[in-house]
Amino acid sequence: MSKTILLTGASGGIGYAMARVFAEKGYNLVLVARRKEPMEMLADEVNKKYGIETSIVIQDLAQEGAGKKLYEAIDHMGIHPDILINNAGFADYGKFVERGWEKVRDMIMVNILALTEITRMFAADMVRRGSGKILNVASTAAFQPGPLMAVYFASKAYVLSFSEAISNELKGTGVTVTALCPGPTQSGFVERAEMSSSKMFRVIKPVSSEKVARYAYHALMAGKVVAIPGLLNKMSAMSSRFFPRSIVRYFMRKISDPV
Hints:
The protein has one domain (4-256): Rossmann fold (3-Layer(aba) Sandwich), CATH 3.40.50.720. Helices cover 52% and strands 15% of the residues. The protein starts with a strand and ends with a helix. The protein contains 10 helices and 9 strands. The model has no long low-confidence stretch (mean pLDDT 92). It is α/β, with parallel strands linked by helices. It has a 7-stranded parallel beta sheet with strand order 3-2-1-4-5-6-9, with helices on both faces. A two-stranded parallel sheet has the order 7-8.
């Protein structure tokens, strides 16, 4: 019997690539995002190519109670996901006091609140069944403060800490939790964050979404708690352990500044 993954943020970037990887491995898909057309194109492609079943849910996770609505929609469909991938998330670029509050609020709602709410409900079901896997997409941003992207970096620090903690709590239940911490990735992230003027993606060469997705699959299957793809990303994540926080803040500001 084929297993099913529930994947948020499936309309582009890493989420789109992960959907393809899991479809290739024979998993049925439940794709969640705001944009319908990219998910329909993806569903048509993988259904024909791999003979799987794909369901689509249109959901804006920035809305109050979106996590509960998603859970109820999936339950109504009679689907019980074996794997949950919380991939939905976005960033914003610029000085905190100068950014529009609505986008900042939506970022917190998607990156933190919706992820937590969705994890809470589906994880409880997995524990009752005695099996399941959860992948929360954090970032190498989780390991240091991020001037000019203050809320994004802080939100990913939450995702990492939260995922590590519940991974420990769920030991012995048959449910594993993995925090994926990619670095700069070719995913449409820059455009949505309005950070094309930043040095960051020029100093650090982005890797492909497919490469990150394949790494994520193997890390999740292996039950890794913290999964950081690539040597340079691992070094970046470790930097805050070896340098004073003041140095880390200074460096992060330098590579985030406009060109």
